[in-house]
Specification:
Layout (H helix, E strand, L loop, with lengths): L1 H16 L8 E9 L4 E10 L4 E3 L12 E4 L6 E9 L3 E5 L4 E7 L1 E10 L5 E8 L1 E2 L8 E8 L11 H17 L4 H20 L7 H12 L3 H30 L1 H8 L2 H18 L9 H11 L3 H15 L1 H16 L5 H22 L12 H29 L6 H19 L16 H17 L48 E4 L4 E4 L2 H11 L3 E6 L4 H9 L4 H9 L2 E6 L12 E2 L7 E2 L2 H13 L6 E5 L16 H16 L1
Parallel strand pairs: 13-15, 14-15
Antiparallel strand pairs: 1-2, 2-8, 3-7, 3-10, 4-9, 5-8, 6-7, 9-11, 12-13, 14-18, 16-17
Length: 660
């Protein structure tokens, strides 16, 4: 007991002496707005200190940690109505992360509507968030929130006349809480529309165009009637596919789709699903619905009238499923990652592209003569789509790898796979590879040659990415440059000497070559300390984060300078501790938090964050500490230091103290 009191006293003294380095720039307040006897708005207000900013709930993947609300509804006393809404905020083009990021300054208001099912006095929630300023980023922080329903703001109780106005305002807030939603939905529609045209050029659909249009024009009493029936046929196609998108959204829920798409296991399932689609398109087998379905639907198509036309469209969807199914599946997977009504918009774009030719050729049947004849080129289109599906599949596997931080599919491996896929596609287009359903090639058409040259150029374009090229054209697909074996390239030797040309056999146990400078680094404190004792070098502890903007600025703008890089590679042992590492600690290593009584330290990042606060009285990143092998400070720690000379002098001063 005595030792415990002494330890707590020492911790208190150390924190007291360095309390200026403990940042707490966010204050959370809660309130409740009564909408009706059973519905309430739970309002969480963040008051943000000057110069700090809080990130939005909607942050692109591989960006900063988004603000996330988790409601404790174990007793099922209520149900959530819609998303947690937020204010408009600011959107900036962040050059470090290479993406547009939304954040809030000064204050931010979040609202979650709930419908009460049982009587309860309070609703508990947890908000996880990340904040940064121009020099620091704080680790992901969790704060408990309590919403007291008995003390709701009665001034916001609405009369019937005002309810419609309030609901209208809240719907507006929902839309402004996702500034990218309109743009994102437009992008989904365009991609789906292009995919629909690609599906038209497959062996299952293309031959149906002249057959179907001729049927309508011959069976109709007049040309106008034929055009009308073809238009109804096209609308029926749109309705069928939009119903499919609506069904997917209704079954999983608009919010759940986005959550599923960012889940590790669902990313792995999507990867396997797309691989199956790709192998099918390449000719290994065909994915088909039962023939009995097509027969039953075809029988209904003979009924005539609008109902008969609808069943004709349904028959087309079923018969062509072996070609359109993989494309539709891929679109639904991609749309799911956007959440909301994206699957519906995707199916609208896809079906519109398929339906459009039927209406146009019915109106202008003379155009049918200009259509190319069916042939082997249709299978070529199908195979090309198969290669594209295979390439896209690895994006989903990469998502899972990034979340788990397994480093199995790092940037170089991802690019090598894509280079192999598009290289094989190039050889296929040039006739050097033939697949099961291909016709014999006597010559290469101009169109096939042109497409082959495009894929060859794209393949060559990606190759420098193995040597650190940024590849801006495909920046959204491969992992970020810092998630790689060596951002400067496979086998590269950079300035600064040290470990830049080491092989994996020469790297000490528990260490790795840290991106982006090939510095020998440890991410485990004990292993790094043991190695420093072995080689008798000072230690630089780098408290950092995967989502820390200013950490990346230091690494990209300061560490890269030759004199600094030389010191980091040769004169210190670098231990990089990621405070936002979400990997769980093994059960035996989980412990009670000393800073948050009653809470457990469950994640690796929480362990390092608590260590930083207890030992050094700071909670912001980047934060650099120089210590000797006995864990004594060699110099006062420093934080974000964009001045290269100042940072270099700090390093040299600490190292010289070690040598005394």
């Amino acid at each position: 007991m005595k030792k415990t009191l002494i330890y707590l006293f020492l911790v208190f003294v150390s924190l007291k002496g360095l309390e200026a380095q403990i940042h707490n720039p966010i204050k959370w307040n809660t309130s409740v707005e009564k909408i009706s006897d059973s519905e309430y708005n739970l309002v969480a207000t963040a008051t943000i200190e000057s110069n700090w900013h809080l990130y939005s709930q909607n942050v692109p993947e591989d960006g900063p940690i988004p603000t996330t609300f988790m409601f404790d509804n174990g007793n099922e006393d209520y149900e959530l109505v819609g998303n947690t809404t937020e204010e408009e905020g600011h959107e900036v083009d962040d050059k470090v992360f290479g993406m547009k990021i939304k954040y809030f300054e000064n204050n931010a208001v979040f609202k979650q509507r709930v419908k009460m099912l049982n009587k309860t006095a309070t609703i508990d929630a947890v908000v996880e968030f990340m904040v940064c300023d121009d020099a620091n980023c704080l680790p992901p922080t969790e704060v408990d929130l309590t919403f007291n329903l008995s003390n709701q703001d009665t001034s916001t109780a609405l009369s019937k006349e005002n309810k419609k106005e309030q609901l209208s305002k809240e719907k507006t807030k929902v839309s402004t809480s996702k500034p990218k939603s309109k743009k994102g939905l437009l992008g989904i529609f365009i991609i789906a529309f292009i995919s629909g045209f690609a599906a038209l050029l497959t062996p299952c659909v293309f031959p149906m165009i002249p057959m179907t249009v001729s049927f309508f024009t011959k069976q109709s009493k007049s040309r106008a009637a034929g055009i009308k029936n073809a238009i109804i046929y096209g609308l029926a196609i749109i309705i069928i596919y939009v119903l499919l998108g609506t069904t997917v959204t209704a079954i999983f829920g608009a919010d759940a789709l986005n959550a599923l798409a960012t889940n590790v296991w669902f990313n792995i399932i999507f990867f396997l699903l797309l691989v199956v689609f790709a192998v099918s398109f390449l000719g290994a087998f065909e994915i088909m619905l039962p023939n009995s379905w097509a027969n039953k639907v075809d029988a209904q198509a003979n009924r005539g009238g609008w109902i008969g036309i609808f069943f004709m469209a349904l028959a087309l969807a079923i018969v062509s499923f072996s070609c359109t199914g993989p494309i539709v599946g891929t679109l639904l997977v991609e749309a799911a990652s956007k959440g909301g009504i994206a699957p519906i918009i995707g199916m609208l774009g896809f079906s519109s592209a398929i339906a459009l030719p039927f209406a146009l050729f019915a109106a202008f049947p003379g155009w049918l003569n200009s259509l190319p004849k069916s042939g082997g080129w249709l299978n070529t289109v199908k195979v090309v789509l198969g290669f594209l599906e295979l390439a896209l599949a690895f994006k989903f596997l990469s998502n899972a790898d990034l979340v788990l931080q397994l480093h199995w599919l790092e940037r170089e491996v991802f690019l090598a796979i894509w280079i192999a896929i598009f290289g094989a596609l190039t050889l296929y287009l040039f006739g050097k590879i033939q697949l099961p359903h291909d016709s014999p090639i006597t010559h290469i058409s101009v169109g096939r040659l042109s497409l082959g040259l495009i894929t060859l150029s794209f393949t060559i374009y990606m190759i420098p990415g193995l040597w650190g090229a940024p590849l801006n054209l495909i920046s959204a697909f491969p992992p970020a440059q810092h998630y790689s074996e060596s951002p400067y390239g496979v086998g590269s030797v950079k300035q600064g000497g040290g470990f830049s040309n080491h092989t994996s056999n020469e790297i000490p146990e528990g260490a790795h070559l840290m991106a982006p400078h090939n510095i020998l680094a440890f991410d485990d404190y004990d292993k790094g300390l043991a190695y420093a004792k072995k080689v008798n070098k000072p230690i630089m502890i780098d408290f950092t984060g995967h989502a820390c903007v200013n950490c990346r600025k230091m690494e990209q703008n300061v560490w890269v300078k030759e004199k600094v890089l030389k010191v980091l590679k040769n004169d210190v042992v670098l231990i990089s501790l990621y405070v936002d590492d979400k990997r769980p600690l093994p059960n035996g290593e989980q412990m009670d938090s000393k800073l948050r009584p009653g809470k457990k330290i469950k994640y690796i990042g929480q362990k390092w964050s608590e260590m930083q606060q207890l030992k050094y009285g700071a909670n912001a990143q980047p934060f650099y500490v120089l210590i000797d092998t006995n864990e004594n400070k060699l110099i006062e720690p420093t934080a974000y230091t964009p001045d290269v000379d100042e940072y270099y002098n700090w390093l040299v001063s600490g190292i010289s103290n070690f040598k005394k």
